[in-house]
């Protein structure tokens, strides 16, 4: 069964990885990986090199990301990605299924270009809601262009039924990034932090992305982020993973560099951990702060409290490990102190289901055999 997987960033690749490993090592499948977006950007860590290190038989590279991150550049990148994929699909439309994941603008562009070619897209993680980001629009576009859907929760499956007006080909399988969480063995704290020249001490793990709905507020939000992190750094090390390529992402990047310059011995910036190191960083952290989906989706499985800031993740299903704060330094610090007092989280993760990858493999084989 010839399958392709679209991956546009370190984030979606980390989620895909358990599935990719299973498909790669199963003779039933003929797998090709299509890399584009920030994978091909040196400014974002050139994660294409990491993908290449995993030994896939065939990897396609499609570079279409414009360096700037204002609205015109993002829209131009969308258009350029569509043009590049129009040419790609013309010569590569023989796949039986093509996986796409999430809600990035690059992913939407790649999928939209495939519609006239009749590409059978398989969408992972439609049906979600993020009211504070334009991702909702892109996610729903991808959903409408796909024929097979794998979702994280039953509520997400119900939403896809409403969007597509169909009840078939929609399967609730949980989050595949957590597929092997029970057997996960983290890199030791000493080895992990030493690799990135970070002192071996307690730390808070931080990821902030721009708000892509209230873009006019991002300058204020970035400053509130800076004030909060400098205050937290008075009592704890702060390890920051850098933002994605979103509208005004460079504003946050610049503010993070500025923040580090104020406390270079307490604040540490990491461009790209990779999945195992990022999960290890979560495992060893005191707690998470920011507005990234990993604080909502994965952190609960590591027993970590998350201070979720702003509206970027608003509307997304949450476990009881999440403390929501506005983009205000006083509120962020209040929730941070509350999370420190609460310590470890012992509850369930609403995104976890047993053997999610195996469920996908079983369903794919059933479709092929039918």
Automatic annotation (TrEMBL):
Superkingdom, natural source: Bacteria
**Coiled-coil annotated residue ranges, if any:** none
Q: Which residues form the UDP-N-acetylglucosamine 2-epimerase domain?
A: 22-365
InterPro entries attached to this UniProt entry: UDP-GlcNAc_Epase (IPR020004), UDP_GlcNAc_Epimerase_2_dom (IPR003331), WecB-like (IPR029767)
Q: Which NCBIfam families match?
A: NeuC_NnaA
Supply the PANTHER family for this chain: UDP-N-ACETYLGLUCOSAMINE 2-EPIMERASE (PTHR43174)
Q: What is this protein called?
A: GDP/UDP-N,N'-diacetylbacillosamine 2-epimerase (Hydrolysing)
The species this protein was found in? Nonlabens dokdonensis
Q: What phylogenetic lineage does the species belong to?
A: Bacteria, Pseudomonadati, Bacteroidota, Flavobacteriia, Flavobacteriales
């Amino acid at each position: 069964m010839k399958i392709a997987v679209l991956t546009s960033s370190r984030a979606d690749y980390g989620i895909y990885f358990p599935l990719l490993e299973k498909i790669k090592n199963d003779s039933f499948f003929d797998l090709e990986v299509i890399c584009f977006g920030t994978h091909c950007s040196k400014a974002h860590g050139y994660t294409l090199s990491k993908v290449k290190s995993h030994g896939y038989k065939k990897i396609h590279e499609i570079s279409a990301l414009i360096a700037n991150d204002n609205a015109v550049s993002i829209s131009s990148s969308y258009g350029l990605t569509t043009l590049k994929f129009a040419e790609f699909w013309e010569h590569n439309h023989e796949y039986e299924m093509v996986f796409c994941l999430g809600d990035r603008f690059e992913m939407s562009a790649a999928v939209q270009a495939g519609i006239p070619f009749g590409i059978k897209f398989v969408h992972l993680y439609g049906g979600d809601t993020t009211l504070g980001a334009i991702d909702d629009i892109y996610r729903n576009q991808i959903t409408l262009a796909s024929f097979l859907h794998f979702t994280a929760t039953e509520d997400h499956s119900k939403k896809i039924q409403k969007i597509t007006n169909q009840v078939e080909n929609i399967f609730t399988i949980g989050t595949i990034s957590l597929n092997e969480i029970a057997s996960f063995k983290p890199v030791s704290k000493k080895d992990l932090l030493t690799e990135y020249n970070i002192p071996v001490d307690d730390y808070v793990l931080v990821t902030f992305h721009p708000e892509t709905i209230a873009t006019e507020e991002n300058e204020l939000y970035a400053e509130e982020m800076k004030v909060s992190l400098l205050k937290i750094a008075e009592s704890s090390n702060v390890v920051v993973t850098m933002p994605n390529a979103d509208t005004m992402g460079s504003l946050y990047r610049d503010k993070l560099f500025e923040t580090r310059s104020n406390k270079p011995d307490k604040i540490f910036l990491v461009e790209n951990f990779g999945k195992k190191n990022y999960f290890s960083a979560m495992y060893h952290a005191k707690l998470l702060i920011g507005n990234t989906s990993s604080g909502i989706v994965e952190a609960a499985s590591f027993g970590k409290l998350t201070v979720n800031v702003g509206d970027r993740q608003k509307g997304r299903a949450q476990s009881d490990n999440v403390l929501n704060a506005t983009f205000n330094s006083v509120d962020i610090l209040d929730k941070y102190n509350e999370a420190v007092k609460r310590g470890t989280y012992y509850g369930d993760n609403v995104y976890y289901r047993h053997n999610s990858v195996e469920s996908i493999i079983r369903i794919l084989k059933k479709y092929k055999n039918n």
